[in-house]
Amino acid sequence: MTASAEFPRGPERPAGWLSPDEITHARTQLPILYVDAIPVRVDDSGDVVQVGLLLRVTQEGVMSRALVSGRVMYHERVRDALLRHIEKDLGPVALPQIPASPQPFTVAEYFPTPGVTPYHDPRQHAVSLAYVVPVLGDCRPQQDAIDLAWMTPEEACAQQIQFEMNGGQGLLLRQAMGHVGRLP
Amino acid sequence: MTASAEFPRGPERPAGWLSPDEITHARTQLPILYVDAIPVRVDDSGDVVQVGLLLRVTQEGVMSRALVSGRVMYHERVRDALLRHIEKDLGPVALPQIPASPQPFTVAEYFPTPGVTPYHDPRQHAVSLAYVVPVLGDCRPQQDAIDLAWMTPEEACAQQIQFEMNGGQGLLLRQAMGHVGRLP
Amino acid sequence: MTASAEFPRGPERPAGWLSPDEITHARTQLPILYVDAIPVRVDDSGDVVQVGLLLRVTQEGVMSRALVSGRVMYHERVRDALLRHIEKDLGPVALPQIPASPQPFTVAEYFPTPGVTPYHDPRQHAVSLAYVVPVLGDCRPQQDAIDLAWMTPEEACAQQIQFEMNGGQGLLLRQAMGHVGRLP
Amino acid sequence: MTASAEFPRGPERPAGWLSPDEITHARTQLPILYVDAIPVRVDDSGDVVQVGLLLRVTQEGVMSRALVSGRVMYHERVRDALLRHIEKDLGPVALPQIPASPQPFTVAEYFPTPGVTPYHDPRQHAVSLAYVVPVLGDCRPQQDAIDLAWMTPEEACAQQIQFEMNGGQGLLLRQAMGHVGRLP
């Protein structure tokens, strides 16, 4: 999962958003609902030609690749959470084509205990609805990301890139490529 | 959503399960992850021939039809939650064929505010992964259900039965029938 | 299925396309592969707000509503067939967003014998991969269609419109609306 | 695609089945509709624990692994074709759980020209609806298969086994494992 900030830091936190203490507590008690988006560029026939991966530097100073990912808020629709997180990570003019159907291509279950599923998040039990989202506009990395790299499906599934992804997101990316018929 | 008990009442509550106070509080702050199962009987070719609906009497004394539905617990996989709720509602020898894929046929978003989505749950914002689950064994209504009725897809989608379903579950049932190619 | 022309009439028929005699013969011997597209308008969150239906007059002079539908050619990819039929029916600047994944929301099996499935095509056994396709551009009815009407999901699923659709396409439209969470 | 016989050899060929000459001719003119089944063993929670692969010796004497695969006949439903081919390849008591929904997890487009898609069939343009099918009963290789091997998803996706699969079926198997959450 991304380590990006998920709520504003100021006192102007909207109603329904949890305080840092509250979300920390909830994370020990309930599965937390997430969305994962795999941003892609497609050609006129809808065929995926490129996948977008965020590049971040972790607190330990390690380079890490990530998908767009984040929590669904109280009283927020899944499709609105998808749109919000994509705009948060790729900027306001990415023009994401949010899927018409709420059916995700898979559900990624990030467990705090490694090995229960192929996904792992030490902070929490997160259950993430995963979608492939074509973006038509101009994308720029936001906040803590230092780059947004566009790669072919083959490049994104290569071992070197997979090693730079954490918590099972490399697998989730390959599942997405399988879903769109572009798994190498 | 079902009003059935979701956690044991005694002091022997397993670790990771919330107290009634805690779940009540969480329900005002976070989307709560659910599963909905549409139990079906299929023929040898997998074609749905019957749908199982639970009959309950609400606290107000009104007859109500319901799908199998319930919360996903902390540190519980979605497929284990599906199995647990089906056994809780249909008994221990229902022999449910839990889907091999975690991809739900839809995601039902029950909002505490009516009208945001077609699904409504006054108690909470619940996001439910919905699956069609063939059952091969003997099914008996458990706990607070007074009957389990098997109907054809046509009967289950008829107006009279739809009126007896609450919170958008009638719609969810019809979506399931659309998914299996049996929407009348 | 649409009654629209599926191949050019002149002598310049591309290699791999069948002559009218050949396709007539094949239709009595093999299931013929089709695509069905449900053209939709979506809002920024991807929610379907309108469905596009073609209006045609049948040879018997009856008004009829139809989805975009047509045959997949020899050596043509499914996604290219989708694009070709949408441009054929909605014009060259419809800007259809062909799905990244080849997974259809359903498979409609049109049988020459009524009653085997809910879909019927007296000419042939056609098996159609069905997709919901958002269109971003300007759509104009082409060829034999006299209008392209945009309706809300509620309007498109209303009994009067359903009566004007043939061969089970009304059902297919409602299945599509179930898939995108907009079945009334 | 499998090289197994797809129609009876005797004069008693059922109505609607093509003669060898006719199918040979049709294969040069039309996409031919197929089904691919990935037979799996699942645990009580529906989690895939094993995948079944057929072992055949090709006409050139090379060992080859294959999925269950075959043509959909004229006037045959997709679900009946799935059942027929599974019984043909795994025997009459395999007890396959044919999916309730006709939605395939993907569509594999086998082109006669290599490289158009990742799937290839030198004989024809075949478009195959692919399904994961749990089998509950006793499976025995039939006809020309010399073995049916059950492997874990990890074993089936290993390079050695993938090398023994032809026409892109190794990829299709890995896509299936991605779909059920078991891609290594």
What does the model show?
Chains A, B, C, D: It comes from Cellulomonas xylanilytica. The structure is a homotetramer of 184-residue chains. Chain A is 22% helix and 28% strand. By secondary structure, the first copy, chain A, is of the alpha+beta class. Chain A has one domain (20-179): Alpha-Beta Complex (Nucleoside Triphosphate Pyrophosphohydrolase), CATH 3.90.79. In chain A, strands 1, 2, 3, 4, 5, 6, 7 and 8 form an 8-stranded mixed beta sheet that branches. In chain A, a hairpin with a 5-residue loop joins strand 1 and strand 2. The first copy, chain A, starts with 19 loop residues before the first helix and ends in a 5-residue tail after the last helix. Residues 1-13 of chain A have low confidence and may be disordered. Chains A and B meet through strand 5 of A and strand 5 of B.
The percentage of residues in β strands of chain A lies in 25-35%
Task: Write the CATH fold name of chain A.
Answer: Nucleoside Triphosphate Pyrophosphohydrolase
Gross morphology of chain A? globular
Level-2 CATH architecture of chain A:
Alpha-Beta Complex
- Number of DSSP strand runs of chain A: 8
Helix/strand order of chain A = HEEEEHEEEEHHH
* Biggest pleated sheet of chain A: 8 strands, mixed
Output the radius of gyration of chain A.
16 Å
Whole-number tally of structural domains of chain A: 1
Number of helical runs of chain A? 5
Mean pLDDT of chain A: 90
The proportion of residues forming helix of chain A, as a percent range, comes to 10-25%
Oligomer description: homotetramer
By CATH, the superfamily of chain A comes out as Nucleoside Triphosphate Pyrophosphohydrolase
Structural class, from secondary structure content of chain A? alpha+beta
Low-confidence blocks of residues of chain A: 1-13
CATH class of chain A: Alpha Beta
Largest interface: A-B, 33 and 33 residues
